[in-house]
Amino acid sequence: MTPTRFRWGLILIQIGILLILRNTNVINDSFWEELIVYFPVVLIAVGIEKIFTKSRLQFISYATSVLIFFGGIAIAVTAGQDTIDGSFFSESSFEFERKPEINRTSAVLNLEHADLTVREAGRDLVRGRFNKFTRKPKIDYTVDGNEAVINFTSRKHSYLGGVVRIDTGDPQDWYISFSEEVPLSLECYGDQSDIHLNLTSTPLEKLKVEADDSKIYVRLGDLLPEVGLTIFGEDSNLRLRIPFEVGLRVDGDDYGAYLKEIGFKEEDGGYVSEAYPEAESRVKINIDNNLSSFSVDFF
Length: 299
Description:
Layout lengths: L2 H21 L7 H7 L1 H14 L6 H21 L12 E5 L7 E9 L3 E3 L7 E5 L7 E7 L2 E7 L20 E5 L5 E8 L2 E6 L4 E9 L2 E6 L5 E7 L4 E6 L4 E5 L4 H6 L3 E3 L2 E3 L9 E6 L5 E6 L1
Parallel strand pairs: 2-6, 2-8, 3-7, 3-9, 8-10, 9-11, 10-12, 11-13, 12-17, 13-18, 14-17
Antiparallel strand pairs: 1-4, 4-7, 5-6, 14-16, 15-16
Helix pairs in contact: 1-4, 2-4, 3-4
């Protein structure tokens, strides 16, 4: 049996297996796109096969066909699963319902280069959607006592998504919303990201953002008496929006001239807004002096 006959036999078996898996709903149709992207690997394998055919190392010609067979099956099964870990080429979503015993949420989002929108809060503990052509994170969800702990970890070695970034024209990659009733501690890490955090209806306790060369927009509400913010980012643009009745304190003097210009007063190593002394809801923020720009709006 020649290596060519062996290769075509395995490819026909592979296609048959994939069609059976598709027809029995074990995998969905999204795997076809990913197989097409990796089709050049087949050409490389055929070239290697031709080089070693009828040589003392002819076993390599057979080995390349075996790699095509098992590699294609692995890619198809990974890409064709209907889970939050979905294919680079498909949209995926998830939700975690709120349980009565949970009274606090701690979430860490590792964006890498993805863009993020946090939307208006809802009834679920957390709900999210990831666009096509974005690298889907690994999501770990645990409950520690009365606290829900959610970690979004970037898949640095995922298929294609770790190497190629496709701009679809959509303004954001990830859309996430948190509970309107459970207090939230949120951390976001990114690079060259567009981070849009609408937290007006989310009971935010703490927010930490570390993102270089990014656009960071934070809009807060007045749901809790004390909110702590820490935002660092070299060459990043930060825009903060808070209600008129919420008091704001900015620690440090790196933006003192700007803050005085918009009506803040210097106090104990920081600057406070006019509403801060009597405000029932207060926000304290520590920001990086390496930001490209910083602005505060009241609404």
